[in-house]
Amino acid sequence: MMVSVGIYVRRGRRLLRRWLLDPRVHTLAQAAAWFCGGLVLSAASLSNRPQPLAFGALCALSGWPAVLMAGGSMAGYLLFWGSAGAQGVVWVMAGVLAATILGGRPLLRSAPLLMPAIAATIVAATGLIFQSMLQDRTPVIMYVLRVAMAALSARLFAIVTERRDPVVDWVACGIAVLALAQIMPIPYVGFGYIAAALLTCIGAFPAAALAGMALDLARITPVPMTAVMCLSYLVRLIPGGRKKWMLCVPAFVYALVMGLCGVWDLMPLPGLAIGGLASWVIPGQTDVSHRRGETGVAQVRLEMASAVLGQTGQLLQSIPEPPVDEAALIQRAAERACGGCPCRKNCKEKPAELPTSLLHKPLGNGGDLPLSCRKSGRMLQELRRSQEQLRTIRADRDRRREYRAAVEQQYHFLSEYLQDLADSVAQRNNPPQQWFQPEVAVVSASRDRANGDRCLWFAGVECRYYIVLCDGMGTGPEAAREGQQAGNMLRKLLSAGYPPEYALRSLNNLCVLQGNAGAVTVDLAELRLDTGKAVLYKWGAAPSYLFSRGDPIKIGTASPPPGLSVTEGRESVEKLSLRRGETLVLLSDGAGGEDALRLCWERAGEPVGELAARILELCRPDGSDDATVAVVRLSHAPVST
User: Fold this and answer.
1) What region, left, alpha or beta, does residue 22 occupy, with left being phi > 0 and alpha being psi -120 to 50 degrees?
2) Which DSSP state fits 581?
3) Is the pLDDT of residue 421 over 60?
């Protein structure tokens, strides 16, 4: 009997694991989350009037997530507010348009306040239109509050999607409670009370306080919920561990405060009780880890270093650039032209008053000069020399601007990296479980002993695995040196936990500073061994291919190599899934050939080493360039018992 039960348990585990790894289930869950997020945020209100929180979250997204959240938001505004939600529908429609045009663009990274400003403008314009044409009676204070909420929520959710920050997470939790407070599917069971009790039992004190404040702002009960949540959190700090009696703390404290205030409202009690019970089964702790001992000292030092580097980068960015003294160039040209002129004693012209516009236009035979010079040839020669000096000065300034931008980026990258390290020092969460193991095979061919292609594969931090293919342009020792230097640099950065996009841009900055534009191209694949997902970063590299069901799928197009510019160049990013046995093929420039790859897709399931050798044999037409083929696949890791 025990054997039969064990068999059924193992079958259930395998079935559950198969469901968890199914990309269709993940896709449906993510789609439902975006739609429900917009639906919930549209219910938020202050003084019984809808607020643009769902619109602000929409402005922080792009692509399909923005479309799904827009659908949930429009449905929510109409469901919760009826005709009063028409203004919210207009917000969402304008937000979808803004997210489609600007979402994910580099412009938003350089100007992070642009989208909040657009959100505030949309809400302000919509309010004016509704007041003037549809006789909307919204008070002026509420109108101003809506505009501010649109801008703040757009910026807040943008930070939430970009990086993790405890303060931002606490505020986001408070906003979620404010929205859920308006949703009560059945009597005496309010989602806002459940969420507030849950945050109080497993969250940090600021999250509990903000949750109580959100319930007070929603005005759904006369009992002061901020006091209830804060007192519940303080009771939770009683020594003795996480006891079962602590699950009843939110409901018990609410009853106590209700009796002290003399206000009897039993509506929140069931929700607070359910939230307390739910905190017992939810894994993990969302508390901010206490800084104790050497760990706390290290965390503080990392945060201080991150802040100093961030401020230094901002100071470098704010240093003004002195203007070019074009009047001095004109005056010097006139002095050189007139100083040795034989007609200078009888000349009645004043060349020192020449306009600086002469430095910005082509000079002909002297007819463009604003004075009648008898020796116009001398003047034209000196003006052309000043034009050349101006071009040299501007080129030098452009070069120094590139240098300063590279240094600013490095300060920013290091600041973000140190902040992430500081956040991870005190975290005591269980590491992610590895569900997959990588299979990598690399074959190369070169007519020289020094191969310009450099392929590395190595493990990163937290179930990350990297494959780096650097192609030094050309052949011979110089190409081999460039490829080896780029590969080794990326390996050191990624092994230390440096984000891939920061590592690639650091390599780009180094190429710009060294003047090695186009010296190397890079393919970088980041595999997640816990989820089976992959991200492919390409910068100037040849297209890659994904063997799935059917013909190979081409990934990436021709793009400029790194080293051309610090601010304009950027890597391309492609998100993939290798959970179901898909095969990723990375190729260097000398191993290109889509037609030959189509001949191999029927044998895509054979071992990666044999597949790599077959692709190289079919895809190397003349052998004039170094050729490298890297084949990557994920297989299921053994289940630990």
Assistant:
1) beta
2) S
3) yes
- CA-based radius of gyration for the chain: 32
Of the chain, the percentage scoring pLDDT greater than 70 comes to 80
**pLDDT tops 70 at residue 602:** no
Residue 95 pLDDT class (50, 70, 90 cuts): confident
Q: What are 434-482's pLDDT values in tens digits?
A: 888 999 999 888 766 667 788 999 998 888 999 999 988 777 778 788 8
SS (H, E, C) 240-275: CCCCHHHHHHHHHHHHHHHHHHCCCCCCHHHHHHHH
Tokens representing 97? 């348009």
Find how far residue 310's CA is from the centre of its chain.
18
Compute CA 106 distance to the chain's CA centroid, rounded to the nearest angstrom.
11
DSSP for 472-519 reads ESSSSHHHHHHHHHHHHHHHHHHHTT--HHHHHHHHHHHHHHHT-TTS
pLDDT in tens, 42-55: 988 887 888 898 88
Which of 329, 380, 384, 330 has its CA nearest to residue 352? Answer: 330
Q: What is the pLDDT of residue 536?
A: 93
Token digits of residue 117: 């400003």
Percentage of the chain exceeding pLDDT 90 = 7
Contacts of residue 281, defined as CB under 8 A and 6 or more positions apart, other chains included, come to none
Tell the residue number behind the tokens 């037609």, with chain if given: 595
Q: Is the pLDDT of residue 289 over 50?
A: no
Task: Answer yes or no: are the C-beta atoms of 611 and 595 closer than 8 Å.
Answer: no
Q: Where are the beta strands (DSSP E) in 505-616?
A: 520-528, 533-539, 544-547, 553-555, 572-577, 583-587
Q: What is the mean pLDDT of residues 570-577?
A: 85
Q: Are 72 and 36 in contact (CB under 8 A)?
A: yes
Is 71 within 8 Å of 35 (Cβ atoms)?
yes
The Cα-based distances of 532 to 82, 430, 467, 637, 641 in angstroms read 43, 19, 15, 11, 21
The DSSP secondary-structure symbol of 83 reads G
The Cα angle at residue 265 between residues 263 and 271, in degrees rounded to 5: 140
Confidence (pLDDT) at 109? 67
**Does residue 371 come out as left (phi exceeding 0), alpha (psi in the -120 to 50 range) or beta?**
beta
Alpha-carbon gap, residue 518 to 163, rounded angstroms:
32
Helices 376-425/326-339 angle, 10° precision: 150
Q: Cα–Cα distance between 65 and 35 in angstroms, integer?
A: 8
- Sequence letter at residue 629: V
State both tokens at 174. 């408070």
